[in-house]
């Protein structure tokens, strides 16, 4: 079977890093069935037939994928460059010829995930598309699909915007993140403002910090709605459970965007959740970020937030461009002030009426700051 493009020319194979983009073949049928019926694939490609049948696979291979090329778009199989094994698919549609732009999409077989397959495939497709005269490629990713966002960033795409209500799942419209790469953009990813934690977590043997995720929704709801936690929040209003669920679901996306790093404070021995701590990178140009934290009552008085603040600060100063951390407390919150002082923070001043209070009132904010030299001194003092 010969697959041709919009000009009637046969589609050539496109080499990538350990992958090969080629037209789909009848021999791909069984693998295509496995990939299209995988729960993760189906979650983020909700338009797929349910279930995806052999007839659907044959229709894709023999009709729909070739038609994409014939209409100026693309639907490549992603194969192992050495064995020819089907590893996934990558393509582009929604082409707008007058603006030389199109939208990229991809999927990966369950057994091929985590190996850089999708990133290599998207990078190869982008090179092929730009070589054919396109100037702008857009890639849309679900807020919850951190893996897809990593692929976009790894293939040289830049997060550009939030496309409101552009996605549909189970009849409900939802927002998608838009990533864009232009023809003259570098293929390699730009350095991230907030890189991943080394080994996925931080620990001093007593407490462990790990990224917040969707599995933490019930825990965060319990913590964030405690009356004393609400009283020290900005604004001092109990968040709705749905709002907290969204925060957990989107935590990885916001980390990847360099906006904030939300972490769970857990007991290093049992793994039990004890609290949360967040870093908000509000001033990348000046290298300043802010931290905040809260603990469940049963875990207070053990020094966990101080340890957590020092662990987070060590990572921030060593692995990011952050040079200064700040934190604020209400004047009456002496417990939080002690935590900051033990962690090495220095009180710098009082910002009058900075924070929204109850019933329209305003509250003062006691400001603390930490730089690397302060942290070294505090750690040595503790040791």
From TrEMBL:
PANTHER family: ACETYLTRANSFERASE, RIBOSOMAL-PROTEIN-SERINE ACETYLTRANSFERASE. It comes from the Bacteria. It holds the Pfam family Acetyltransf_3. The lineage of its organism: Bacteria, Bacillati, Actinomycetota, Actinomycetes, Micromonosporales. This is N-acetyltransferase domain-containing protein. GO terms for molecular function: protein N-terminal-serine acetyltransferase activity; protein-N-terminal-alanine acetyltransferase activity. Residues 19-183, 207-373 form the N-acetyltransferase domain. GO terms for cellular component: cytoplasm.
